[in-house]
Amino acid sequence: MTSLPWLDPDQLWFPPANEALDDPDGLLALGGDLSTERLILAYRNGIFPWYSDDQPILWWSPNPRCVLFPNEIHVSRSLRRTLNQQRFQVTADRHFGRIIRLCASTRAEGTWITEEMIASYSELHRMGVAHSIEIWNQRGELAGGMYGLAIGRCFFGESMFSLETNASKVLMVHLAHQLQLWGYRIMDCQVESRHLLTMGARTIPREEFLSILRMTIDQKPDQTDWTFLWRWPGPEE
């Protein structure tokens, strides 16, 4: 079995993403730390942490990569009816701490979002790199949410939860359209799921994903203020 590099917390580096294992798919390195500098370096190079409390920090770059190009968001007929009902409102950066903790606590299969990760991503939020997206019902109650990182013209989705039917789908539609208006090139979904694929996400080879990152990660988006202005029906509808 190929040995994996152990990262020294005092040395800020990663092996190239294309050196990741095929089995388990995408495992690249172990150890290091969750400093904001290391996390930003990881995402800039197509790498993300994913591990449990009883494991060392594990760093991944799977092949293929699940992504959503904002202009490819798919709105089914039933979802269109939900959007037409205007049952939900979408905001950003209102309750980052609440969103990341609900992403951790609402997963029936358990979570990789450890207290250490919550602390590190909360610091990224204070730096303006990590963002939360909230979706609210007509009673002003939280119906779902998501958090991720915005670097250059790339948004890296980390985790999402839904407390009401279709809330996460409505959130995805609003997020995709808003990212498109701001000039974002890609939304990283990391690993495919049926939910993401039905929303228009698809898998691409890791090298294609890394190529997109290289072209867009240093480009400033058209807007850096995360105020959601897009509303359904939008100009494309």
UniProtKB/TrEMBL annotation:
One of its GO terms (molecular function) is leucyl-tRNA--protein transferase activity. InterPro entries: Acyl_CoA_acyltransferase, Leu/Phe-tRNA_Trfase, Leu/Phe-tRNA_Trfase_C, Leu/Phe-tRNA_Trfase_N. It catalyses: L-phenylalanyl-tRNA(Phe) + an N-terminal L-alpha-aminoacyl-[protein] = an N-terminal L-phenylalanyl-L-alpha-aminoacyl-[protein] + tRNA(Phe); N-terminal L-lysyl-[protein] + L-leucyl-tRNA(Leu) = N-terminal L-leucyl-L-lysyl-[protein] + tRNA(Leu) + H(+); N-terminal L-arginyl-[protein] + L-leucyl-tRNA(Leu) = N-terminal L-leucyl-L-arginyl-[protein] + tRNA(Leu) + H(+). GO terms for biological process: protein catabolic process. It is an enzyme of class 2 (transferase). It is found in: Cytoplasm. NCBIfam families: aat. This is Leucyl/phenylalanyl-tRNA--protein transferase. The lineage of its organism: Bacteria, Pseudomonadati, Pseudomonadota, Gammaproteobacteria, Pseudomonadales. The gene is aat.
